[in-house]
Amino acid sequence: MVNNKYIKTMAKTKLEYVWLDGNKPTQCLRSKTKIVTDFDGSLDNCPMWSFDGSSTQQAEGNSSDCLLKPVAIFPDPDRKNAYLVMTEVLNPDGTPHESNGRALIDDNDNDFWFGFEQEYFLWNPETNLPLGFPTGGYPRPQGPYYCSVGATNAFGRSVVEEHLDLCLEAGINVEGINAEVATGQWEFQIFAKGAAEAGDQVWIARYLLERTAEKYGLSINWHPKPLKGDWNGSGMHANFSNDLLRNAGSRGVYEQVCESFAPLVTEHIEVYGADNDQRLTGAHETQSIDKFSYGVSDRGASIRIPIGTVENGWKGWLEDRRPASNGDPYKIAARIIRTVKKAEVEVAA
């Protein structure tokens, strides 16, 4: 006989486990819900879980189990009694899966701080065009849409505002939003002290955006150049600093760090997002994909030295403008950290 009184006293909580699949060249978000009893809201009490990796291009059917290791937890403001649990994928023996970009980050002391500027398009799946594009025609050329207001300029604000509120309620450190240069294009910015934490927050923010857009019958287009022609592409500019950059006080140090990126163009572009060659053309505030440059306040450079860094006595941060909107923030951060650490050794020498 079922004890109904006992069942009623057991509090039930939804844990939405979120992970990255093995899709190539661009990984996609996956998630599933685990129901737990008397959950205290802590990451330590999120159990390891598993999934069928043969359905996500992460395993063969004859040995399909992959593990989900919880790495970050956020309240889920869009569901009752629920949390969002960011996880990383492990092999059955507990080693990082080859698709696990988070495991590549060498930042155990959180010396590196990252701010990602995530651009994207609100997309109408029925017309296969951005929100704001008329069927069978074109809107006005870009120009009036950036940081715009009004029904003839800004498209999808209700989605964007709802997403912002959800992120803030979840404890994600969104530092701003704005309409971007092209029709139906928007941006949010996330900052965190710690590379892995920054990546966790970007991925959960992306997840919330995808799920919010569902309710409006819209999708999110993360492609770096979904519109051909004279339209801006979508990037994910990576602002970064470590103790060296925050306290350098020297133009020479900044130039030495920037120069360390020059011989590693290929290595960085490889992890900065698929189809980025369509965006990094030297036009629309980009440097060509096969070139490297840096400069103060130069939005056409590969790396921009912010004017705020200069005015603060060469103490601050750098902005790598090359990462694409569909890039993995974990892999991007891991590659930047590797390059800067090498430069740090050379500066010390």
From TrEMBL:
InterPro entries named among the record's database cross-references = Gln_synt_N, Gln_synt_N_sf, Gln_synth/guanido_kin_cat_dom, Gln_synth_cat_dom, Gln_synth_gly_rich_site, Gln_synth_N_conserv_site, Glutamine_Synthetase
- Which ranges carry the GS beta-grasp domain? 13-94
Which PROSITE patterns does this UniProt record tie to the protein? GLNA_1, GLNA_ATP, GS_BETA_GRASP, GS_CATALYTIC
- The top EC class, named as a word, is ligase
Q: Which Pfam families would you find in this protein's record?
A: Gln-synt_C, Gln-synt_N
Q: Which reaction equation describes what this protein catalyses?
A: L-glutamate + NH4(+) + ATP = L-glutamine + ADP + phosphate + H(+)
Q: What is its EC number?
A: 6.3.1.2
What is the purpose of this protein?
Catalyzes the ATP-dependent biosynthesis of glutamine from glutamate and ammonia.
| Binding partners and assembly | Homooctamer and homotetramer.
Xref: PANTHER family: GLUTAMINE SYNTHETASE, GLUTAMINE SYNTHETASE 2 CYTOPLASMIC
**Name of this chain's protein:** Glutamine synthetase
Q: Which organism is it from?
A: Fulvivirga imtechensis AK7
Its organism's taxonomic lineage begins at: Bacteria, Pseudomonadati, Bacteroidota, Cytophagia, Cytophagales
